[in-house]
Amino acid sequence: MSGTETQGPADGSGDGTRAVRAGLPEPVKHEPTLPGPVFAAHFHLPGDPTGPYTYGRDENPTWTLLERAIGELEAPGQDGVQTLVFASGMAAISSVLFSQLRAGDSVVLPNDGYQVLPLVRAQLEAYGIEVRTAPTGGDAQLDVLDGAKLLWIESPSNPGLDVCDIRRLVEAAHTRGALVAVDNTLATPLGQRPLELGADFSVASGTKQLTGHGDVLLGYVTGRDAETMAGVRRWRKIVGAIPGPMEAWLAHRSIATLQLRVERQNASALVLAEALRGRPEVTGLRYPGLPDDPSYKIASQQMHRYGCVVSFTLPTRAHADRFLDALRLVDDATSFGGVRSTAERRGRWGGDAVPEGFIRLSVGAEDPQDLVADVLRALAESAH
Predict the structure, then answer these.
(1) Burial class, 48, CB count within 10 angstroms (exposed 0-12 / middle 13-18 / buried 19+)
(2) Starting from the edge strand earliest in sequence, which strands make up the sheet with 358-362, in order?
(3) Which of 21, 192, 234, 339 is the most buried (most CB within 10 A)?
């Protein structure tokens, strides 16, 4: 397997077809349709070091197929798009920030994004980089954009599920000479395609719904500019934040069912969100697919699907803990996007500006009527 040729779905094919066939090599008689993981620290390399595979920290044939698969999902039909896979979502995030920013630069981050971003801010500031923050909702990052080198967008935001107008922010950032990266983890490439909205980078944790089974840590960066992506690639080489071949193969295998999982999980998330409306103990209910959600209008303009995460707040920390303990079909666990539903009280981690009773619930692939019944029963039991 050379990793130099790939059969991709034709332009205009549906998401399911694309997910099933993305990144597959050209068929060879008696060879598997998806080759197994290539375990290699080094490759035969006589003479000058030319060719695609020289050393295991730089490239691997299993990565190549996965990167092409993700690229076909993030930017179908677009030429010149590159994808690089990493050992985790945070490795991917770090690669963009630390490869593109220098001492004296300014970066704009969301102040309501992933709870590790405050740690990232501290490290950026230690390197002499100015960090500005603003909420995701209301396109508030526009107000602190002047003079920035990079704008970091997380839409929908995690865990609050606010949405911003990505195209509007991208146009404003580019006018001011700033690059734009969008964390696309919650949406997945089947829910939103940041490069089509003008962003320079689409970054995500493949740990979540992209792979969807809670058994792989993975991240990726997709971009179309060769120079900026060369910087990301160089950072990966320097830091060595690379995925194992087994993880890369599992991820590629899992992508084949992405459309099936996304359709089921997103539809069930909407059913659950509708069931939670009007519950007296539930406040702050958020799901971008609800017509009365504050993010619905913008989300409907730029998203193809609304995601599998629903958030809401119960009156107290104790009430939230009772609710989580009463659930039977929903695991009390962090992360989201898996085929098994999970929920957690986000305040237990710190770093998220949420009430003590705030719940982030990730809807899995269970029968929706069973899941809704379990959640409503747990709400009833936890009220006392």
Answers:
(1) exposed
(2) 283-286, 309-313, 358-362, 342-345, 331-332
(3) 192
